[in-house]
Amino acid sequence: MNKVCYNIEDIKKLIPQRFPFLMIDRVIEASPEKVVALKNVSVNEHFFQGHFPDQKVMPGVLITEAMAQTGIVLFRQKHDTEKTLFLVSVKARFFKPVCPGDQLRIEATPVKFLSKMGIFKAVATVGSDKVAEAEIAFGTQDAKA
To answer: Where are the alpha helices (DSSP H) in the chain?
Structure first.
């Protein structure tokens, strides 16, 4: 199921998350070697009501979630499974804040994928600025490490 671009309806067929936790809006590149996804950060996002009302910043955990969802799309480029993938570990670094009006670009590449688990690297940018990077592992509930 390789397509150059996935719209929101295509993404919903690949990942189980739904509003308000669907954190990617579009996939602009998809192959078993790399997936590039976009998240348009709007001032109307529910989390900006409390994080932080006077200086709105997208929570790092939600940037991480966007990277994880991009990784699921990457995994599904190679493995045709409908099993739910659960987060196993995250090693992340954050460099700059993500604010309303920004477009988050997430690039995910595989480190190691097996049929029931995987590890991938993700880099999130806004324009030419790297805002976060992570190495994320995930697996199905029946995966054995």
So the answer is: 8-14, 60-78
Whether 145 and 117 have beta carbons less than 8 Å apart is answered as yes
Count the domains in the chain.
1
Predicted confidence (pLDDT) per residue in 36-85, tens digit: 999 999 999 999 988 888 999 999 999 999 999 999 999 999 988 888 99
Residue type, 80: D
51 catalytic? Reply is yes
Q: Is 117 among the domain residues?
A: yes
Can you give the CATH number for the domain in which 37 is found?
3.10.129.10
- Burial class of residue 2 (count of CB atoms within 10 Å of its CB; 0-12, 13-18, 19+): exposed
Question: Which residue among 26, 29, 32, 51 is the active-site one?
Answer: 51
